[in-house]
Specification:
This protein is mainly α and 300 residues long. It has 13 helices and no strands.
């Protein structure tokens, strides 16, 4: 019920038509967008951590989000009147290319469980981010790119968040294919010896990550750390059974991102701090806590 337009439970129960109208135009779409964004980034993190055999890889540490951002900028420049569906397709394609490039690079790294892997992704993402910023400056689009990268939900109303329903299909597919990703996480040789088509599983996983990241980037921008922190916290508490953990990962990610959104809307009300800023601070602290806990020391 938090927001500039006051909506109360008593008002809804009394049948206030204006409150009900704003409730369905603003509050419900924003809440659903938060839930879908949380599912997209956390489930993408789980898939990437399995496919790369590294606990510290997620879309924002693999450069996937930056590639999606480059796709969004290219849409701004060359397809200014494109529909959200077209932007989603371009961003997803760009994210897919970037993820495949990242996987191609880390395949040459023998120590897959070390911090070198996410560092490679961060460097690759930094290069793509710099290229995106350079193009934006040259084309006088920097303000639009910065606003889009802020990862806020303030503009989410009915009619703008609907592409995020695609994330629900990715979430269901992730649950159904969880065991395949777990086997793929054992490495190409072991997975192949167990009868898994490793290449096909890798392609499906990358496509799902690119789709979830591309759609989320188009609608709400970057959401950092969510795909890194939540899967690791759930693994610390419940073990590494991917399929059994997925419902808990979805719940924790939803609670965390909605909590960040509420904090951003309350502390400077009636103004608003983007959810990505709050998530960045909380995620960074949680990430450091995970590292210093020593639970995943072997991965560093």
């Amino acid at each position: 019920m938090v927001g500039e337009y006051r909506i109360t439970v008593s008002g809804l129960l009394s049948g206030d038509a204006d409150m009900w109208r704003m409730f369905f135009i603003s509050r419900v779409p924003r809440t659903l967008a938060l839930v879908f964004a949380g599912l997209a980034m956390s489930f993408s993190g789980v898939i990437m951590q399995r496919l790369t055999q590294n606990r510290f890889v997620e879309p924002t540490t693999a450069g996937t989000a930056e590639w999606a951002g480059l796709g969004v900028l290219l849409c701004f420049l060359y397809l200014p009147g494109a529909s959200p569906l077209v932007r989603m397709v371009v961003a997803t394609t760009s994210a897919f290319i970037g993820t495949v490039l990242f996987l191609g690079i880390i395949n040459r790294i023998r120590a897959r469980k070390t911090a070198i892997v996410p560092l490679v992704g961060l460097m690759l993402g930094a290069v793509i981010g710099a290229v995106t910023t350079y193009i934006a400056v040259q084309q006088n689009m920097l303000q639009a790119v910065v606003a889009w990268r802020s990862g806020g939900f303030s503009h989410i109303v009915r009619g703008f968040y609907e592409p995020l329903w695609a994330v629900l299909a990715v979430a269901v597919a992730t649950y159904l294919l969880a065991n395949y990703f777990t086997i793929a996480g054992l490495g190409r040789d072991v997975a192949t010896s167990l009868g898994l088509n490793y290449g096909r599983t890798l392609a499906v996983g990358v496509t799902m990550v690119a789709l979830a990241t591309g759609v989320t980037s188009v609608v709400v921008g970057f959401i950092p750390f969510l795909g890194l922190v939540v899967p690791n916290i759930v693994s610390m508490l419940r073990g590494d059974d991917m399929r059994k953990n997925l419902p808990w990962i979805g719940v924790v990610a939803t609670v965390l991102i909605i909590g960040c959104d509420l904090i951003g809307r309350i502390v400077v009300a009636p103004m608003e701090i983007p959810t990505s800023v709050i998530m960045g601070v909380i995620g960074a602290v949680a990430f450091l806590a995970i590292i210093f806990s020593g639970r995943f020391r072997g991965s560093l």
